[in-house]
Amino acid sequence: MRCSPSQKNPRVAVMIAALLIFGGIAYAIPIFCNANGIAIGGAVFQLVTVAAVVAAVFLAVRYQMTHFVYLIRPRSDIDETGMETALAGNIGTLNAAHLPADMLDFVVIRSQGNRAGAAECVLSIADLAAVIPVEKIGTDKKRIRERYQADGYVYYDYTVTLGLDNALALVFIDGNRYAGIFIEPDEAMRAYFLGLGKTKKLG
Questions:
Q1: Number of C-beta neighbours around residue 178 at 10 A
Q2: Burial (Cβ within 10 Å: 0-12, 13-18, ≥19) of residue 73
Q3: Are the C-beta atoms of 71 and 77 separated by less than 8 Å?
Q4: How far apart are CA 166 and CA 5, in angstroms?
Q5: Which terminus of the chain has fewer Cβ atoms in its 10 Å neighbourhood, N or C?
Q6: Strands 177-183 and 104-112
Q7: What is the mean pLDDT of each run of 10 residues along the chain (203 residues)?
Q8: What is the rounded distance in angstroms from the CA atom of residue 86 to the CA atom of residue 50?
Q9: What are φ and ψ of residue 179, in 5° steps?
Q10: Three-state SS at 93
Q11: pTM recorded for the entire structure
């Protein structure tokens, strides 16, 4: 099973353009003032210009140039005999979702621009502890961290839509801690995770 989310917030391009225009205006103000004999310090305007350009570049790289592919695939360390047994009842209708959880990995591949992607996350579906529907990603990230941080918790945001309000948090047991993985799956992948019987609500 494969899913590659796309940017769903049309305001991202507008925000980037606005920041660049704002930075250009901030850069031009001291030049204009000095050309007209108005004494004005340029340091503050230079700082504002740099901040605006850095923010624009961050938004462009993070939300326009960064791409993720989510995969649910057979684990590479499953021996062929075990795989053949698991596949026996699924001939003709096979996809990874038909396999037992202990034979599957969840993988996130990240790429930027035209560069080839690399796997950043490889976790066994068998280690999935909770599936949490997320409505407000900023607020819910904090609430999920508060729930699991006593036992050790890190999180990774693999969403691409700025201001996303319909994500999915996958909480895996990762060694001696929990790992929260935030994704924006398509309907098929969302249904798969919600159908595993590990869905938990924030409350």
A1: 23
A2: middle
A3: no
A4: 12
A5: C
A6: unpaired
A7: 90 94 91 80 87 95 93 75 46 61 92 85 94 89 92 93 89 94 94 92 78
A8: 57
A9: -125, 120
A10: coil
A11: 0.81
